[in-house]
Write a structure and sequence with these properties.
heterodimer, A: about 450 residues, alpha+beta, six-stranded antiparallel sheet, five-stranded mixed beta barrel, about 40% strand, B: about 450 residues, six-stranded mixed sheet, 11 helices, 24 strands, about 20% helix, globular
């Protein structure tokens, strides 16, 4: 059964089962990908999948179920599961979204000529990419991972209040990882990116970038333990800000898991910091007319000149806080709705990253290793890192085997400057380089 | 996917020039109920279904999947995969092979109560036990959340060597997370035991004990200080401490890394790579263990594989393609999260075997160091061996004694450089359930070790 037909079918079943309200999310997707190694195609994959999830409300109790089988029998089982779950869950204060008009713009991300690019085109592109990466620098001893892909998906939403919405997303992507050695030391660098058009992807110099990232780490050593000014490059600044995004979610404050609870209107960060949820910026991958509960999205200034302006909400958290949802629900077919930024954007400053490190001794971090020592609840940050020790704008030596220790909530007060440069990723996160006054470093 | 359909697709794949053709059909029912803040927060269930088709030409893999098991859909997928191969070399044989009658994989679990039969409602009183215990440990416990999740995976594998085999895997897992709060500071600790068992795992589980362990750890760490970062001797606790071996040594021993020459161990078979005190095993046969499989996802019976014996590298962890490319034997280690992934070599239950040392013996040799009974997660680069792990529960060692709790510590190093420095291995081997993410998705594994002493490791602190 086609996905839209399956959605209509299960909607009919839900009505027949007496569900007061329900909403349905679904997707169908395809992708083709290749992985090459030593000049030949090691793996090729062709993938097609679809799934549907339903959330029903009976007696103000929600029940969720999902299925990847879209047969009539499977849809009936799925609906029965969801209805049976309404007998287990507690009553909630919300129901499905009312049918409010959304921004009229088209947020589909359509790749021009998507269907004209074959798996063979991807293979040739990936093989050339690998060959170039191997040939650019004699210190490159291996290029273990190189690949390219095209993918396309359509997300669907339907609810019992008459909202019906769909959005298409397509892209082309590629990645490569190289290993270089210097004496006993080996370093691996990785680079990936995606673009809407294949021509634009081919225009990126991925081979040069991965080789540069790999070789520039050769000779890395730790710095002495101490307190250093740190510039998080725009390769990793988005990771930092998004890793600690949940304190800005209303649902986390309600659970007592946000240290920003009760602090609306307070200055929580350096005056140079502005954070927004920007769903209508079509230059970003996460642009959306509606969130995953069907609510129209809107631009939200979350932090403005360091002042905490607004929590982000989904329907459930908004009802508990007795406010309107901000349209920031996120949800997969089988999960309860959570909250997320719809494009996380930190506003640019006025100086380039090079200008920010022009004077003094500064640790530039451009690779973070794991996030297990980071807690968005406590703000604790203990994380391995690699980068460069710079002095008066010049690299002294590459740095590895160090750990940065800080608390996020203290760190954002200590942002001295934000650069004027975003990285070149096709992404839903856009954060410039962040210069922090001082961070404890163990090396 | 019945036998004639499988036979037809395999025949067509061979005729199209593939050296090997394999079909993998999967239907998995997942169900979970979770509790948070005194409420049943979520109850969900669903079906995952699909058929994966793999063609192997030499050691080149072409893989695809579909959610439709009809002959038309599978033939369409086959044509797309053959087309994807394009003009690249193909086998000239194309000889048909008759599938054997379907067999059932040997039993590696004994289900006493199916989770489907028990029903989702049976989870509610068990979750309440976790909640009641958690809040009773201390007034400083601010939140208890818990979940009970189960999955029943039914698979059928048919291949061009005539294999046609079915298997059913039921897994159950309890997770509890406790948040402690004091003066605005919060610390979260959790436990997540799991098994290859039915609903009886939940019924027989000491939910109160696991919840208490998590709550007490959260409370201890709430008032912990920080350790100064530097190189020092480490004592790593048993159980989840084995995650470092899993990540920094286990992954580089998978043929998936060896075939890409992305491991420091590629040419080390038969050579001393670890301290003679170290013997390490990857065992898929442990009865009802979370990481066990009766057959791997290529249909091969699994086995107990000795990876390192008294410090000497004995075996890699190998799947079909890895065995061919690396010229080693298959170890029944091909695994995948679901039909959405082609199988590759992956770990199962991986552990450092028990030794004879005791914790007091290890501590007695250390004047200043770190005791880490519980690790958090971490990251590793298999190609370079570099790893970085967070210490969830840590204590300073001073003059042979465990003293103050410390938080925020990380362990940094390279797996192949640490192995020779594991100088003492305890007798208290314990395995812990976890999920491992890699090329073929997220698969259930156990990690494990006895308490071990590492003579020197870089500790990141503040």
């Amino acid at each position: 059964m086609r996905v839209p037909d399956a959605m209509d079918k299960i909607a009919d079943l839900a009505r027949a089962a007496g569900a007061a309200d329900f909403d349905i999310i679904a997707y169908d997707s395809m992708s083709e990908s290749v992985e090459v190694f030593e000049g030949k195609v090691a793996n090729s994959e062709i993938q097609k999948s679809a799934a549907l999830g339903i959330r029903v409300f009976k007696d103000s109790r929600p029940g969720i179920a999902f299925t990847e089988k879209l047969s009539a029998e499977a849809l009936k089982t799925c609906l029965d599961d969801a209805v049976s779950h309404t007998k287990l869950t507690d009553r909630v204060l919300f129901s499905v979204a009312e049918n409010q008009p959304a921004v009229g713009a088209n947020f589909d991300h359509i790749s021009p000529g998507f269907d004209k690019v074959s798996l063979s085109d991807l293979m040739h592109f990936a093989i050339e990419l690998e060959q170039k990466a191997r040939s650019l620098d004699s210190r490159i001893e291996n290029v273990p991972y190189t690949g390219a892909a095209r993918s396309s998906s359509t997300g669907y939403f339907l609810n019992s209040r008459g909202i019906r919405h769909e959005q298409r997303d397509q892209d082309f992507s590629a990645y490569s990882a190289a290993v270089a050695s210097l004496g006993e030391q080996k370093k691996m660098g990785f680079y990936s990116n995606s673009r809407l058009s294949f021509a634009d992807l081919k225009g990126l110099d991925i081979a040069n970038e991965v080789v540069r990232r790999t070789t520039e780490q050769l000779g890395a050593k730790p710095v002495s333990s101490g307190h250093y000014p740190v510039l998080f490059s725009n390769r990793v600044s988005g990771q930092i800000i998004s890793m600690y995004s949940s304190p800005f979610f209303g649902e986390m404050a309600i659970r007592g898991q946000s240290r920003l609870k009760g602090r609306l209107g307070e200055t929580i960060a350096s005056p140079v910091l502005n954070i927004a949820s920007a769903p209508h910026d079509t230059a970003l991958r996460g642009s959306r007319a509606r969130d995953s509960e069907g609510v129209p999205t809107q631009h939200i200034d979350v932090v403005s000149s360091g002042k905490f302006m607004q929590f982000l909400y989904n329907l459930e958290a908004a009802a508990l806080d007795k406010v309107k949802t901000t349209g920031n629900a996120v949800r997969s077919v089988g999960s309860k709705a959570g909250t997320g930024f719809k494009n996380l954007v930190v506003a640019k400053g006025k100086q380039t990253a090079q200008e920010l490190i022009a004077s003094g001794k500064i640790l530039v971090i451009d690779k973070l290793e794991g996030a297990a020592g980071c807690s968005a609840i406590s703000g604790e940050m203990s994380i391995g890192a690699q980068g460069f020790l710079c002095e008066n704008g010049h690299r002294v030596h590459p740095v590895d085997r160090i750990t940065l220790s800080a608390n996020y909530f203290e760190m954002i007060k200590n942002i001295e400057a934000i650069s004027s440069e975003y990285n070149e990723q096709w992404s839903s996160i856009r954060v410039p380089d962040l210069l922090i006054g001082g961070i404890s470093v163990a090396g | 996917m019945d036998q004639p359909v499988a036979q037809s697709i395999i025949d067509s794949g061979l005729k199209a020039g593939a050296d090997f053709v394999e079909l993998y059909e999967e239907e998995t029912r997942n169900a979970a109920v979770s509790l948070r803040d005194h409420k049943i927060e979520n109850a969900t269930a669903g079906i995952e279904y699909g058929v994966g088709l793999r063609l192997i030409y030499g050691t080149d893999v072409v893989y695809g999947y579909t959610g439709n098991d009809s002959i038309d859909s599978l033939e369409q997928l086959l044509r797309a995969l053959v087309a994807a191969r394009g003009n690249m070399p193909k086998s000239k044989t194309g000889e048909a092979v008759t599938l054997k009658p379907i067999t059932v994989a040997p039993a590696i679990q004994e289900i006493h109560l199916s989770p489907v039969k028990a029903g989702q409602a049976a989870k509610l009183p068990l979750l309440m036990r976790a909640e009641n215990t958690g809040y009773s440990v201390s007034p400083q416990v601010a939140q208890v959340s818990a979940s009970l999740a189960d999955s029943i995976k039914k698979i059928r594998i048919a291949n061009s060597e005539g294999l046609f085999v079915a298997d059913e895997r039921t897994r159950t897992r309890f997770s509890v997370s406790v948040t402690a709060e004091k003066d605005g500071e919060r610390f979260v600790a959790g436990e997540s035991p799991g098994a290859l068992k039915g609903f009886e795992f939940f019924e027989n589980l000491d939910i109160e004990n696991f919840t208490r362990i998590a709550a007490e750890r959260a409370l201890r760490m709430l008032s912990a200080g920080y350790i100064e970062g530097k190189k020092m001797p480490i004592v790593l606790g048993n159980g989840f401490g084995g995650v470092i071996f899993h990540e920094a040594c286990g992954h580089p021993l998978e043929t998936e890394a060896v075939r890409k020459k992305a491991t420091p161990f590629a040419d080390k078979l038969g050579k001393q790579i670890a301290h003679p005190a170290v013997t390490a095993i990857d065992d898929g046969t442990l009865f009802e263990s979370w990481g066990s499989v009766a057959i791997d996802d290529e249909g091969m019976p699994t086995e107990k594989t000795t990876l390192i014996e008294n410090g000497i590298l004995r075996n890699f962890i190998s799947d079909r393609v890895g065995a061919l490319e690396c010229n080693v034997r298959r170890t029944g280690s091909a695994r995948r999260e679901s039909y959405k992934y082609a199988p590759v070599s992956r770990m199962r239950n991986t552990y450092i075997a028990a030794g004879k040392s005791t914790l007091p013996e290890m501590l007695s040799e250390i004047s200043e160091g770190l005791y880490a009974p519980k690790l958090g997660g971490g990251s590793v680069n298999p190609a370079t061996g570099e790893f970085n792990f967070a210490v969830e529960e840590g204590y300073r060692i001073h003059n042979g004694k465990i003293t103050d709790p410390v938080r925020g510590a990380t362990l940094i190093g390279k797996g192949h450089e640490i192995l020779p420095h594991i100088s003492m291995v305890g007798s208290d081997l314990e395995l812990t359930a976890g999920m491992c993410g890699a090329t073929s998705g997220s698969v259930p594994v156990t990690v494990g070790q006895p308490t071990i002493k590492v003579d020197e490791m870089l500790v990141g602190g503040r």
